[in-house]
Amino acid sequence: MNFWKCQTSANNAPFIRQTMAQPTISVIVPAYNAEQYLHRCIDSILAQTFKDFELLLIDDGSKDNSGVICDEYAAKDERVRVFHKENGGVSSARNTGLEKAEGTWITFCDADDTVNPSWLAIFADYFEESCDLICQGFDCKKTVFNHGAHPHIRDGRYIYGINGAGSVTDILPSLFSNHLINFLWIKAFKSDLIKEHNLAFDTTLRDGEDFIFICQYLTNCCSIRSSDRVGYHYAVPDWANKYQQNFEKEIHIGEQAYDSLRKIYEKSPDNELVRFYREDLVSKYILEFKNNKTSQHYCLKQLRRILKIDFLHSQLFLPTRLVIRFDCTYLLSRIVLSMHQYLKCK
Predict the structure, then answer these.
(1) Domains, in order of start, for the chain
(2) What pTM did the predictor assign?
(3) Per-residue pLDDT for 123 more than 70?
(4) Closest Cα partner for 180 from 223, 216, 144?
């Protein structure tokens, strides 16, 4: 059954267009000053062989013609819905998309990337299976990571993807080791789960927000279906110039990831992923302790507060762990941790 929806144009003038009944998939695309890539991205999405979807273009206060381009597509294709908002960052734009999405499933696409005509069809092939998260493969012109599983190379492109199905605890290690866990756009999420648990993107983060959202989603779902079929073409950014290292941001991401994985593997707390993110978090705090004298007390308090008794299972020297865990004055902690750093450098 059709219904009418009011939509806002680039100049904030409302106009009315007809929208079809609830789509199966909602595709959310944040756009900020993306006119250079936007036509290519939208054209590739609208060329899908799977037709039952809506495309939500979120103009995040663009200063170029991105908003105008979005409106042009909305005027031509009833599957396209456009929302113009003040600039608030990619997390804010995606949250707007989550609020407006009407599909049973939700996925994402970045404005500078493109997709195959089969991108949504790959997801759709598994909608009838009993799973809460669907993951597929992607390719790119340069490798994404320099560690972990090595991707396949075909026609000069790096290809990432695995086949698998099962519980979250069974499939997660393979997704992590094959670099498939961090990315939104190769995943289809159940809209009901997102709404039921009030999941949203952290607007304080400029990067890493997608990983945190995925981790939080995983704590609320039971099963995963993964396919090695490739539907997404990823334009790997220049990480060094695009994002700056920030201790507070890195710690926040590490804490969220560790907390999520502890919940997922509650029945097996010594799981390899839990251990990895515990050690990563410990290392970040110790590095900050070493490099910043003014934050040493804070780092010691956080090690005790965040890691609690699990700190005793870390790979630090046993005396270091015991002193930091039980030293209420923090005086011995500083001495022992300084000695720990000295011995590690020997």
Answers:
(1) 3-242 (3.90.550.10), 247-345 (no CATH)
(2) 0.84
(3) yes
(4) 144
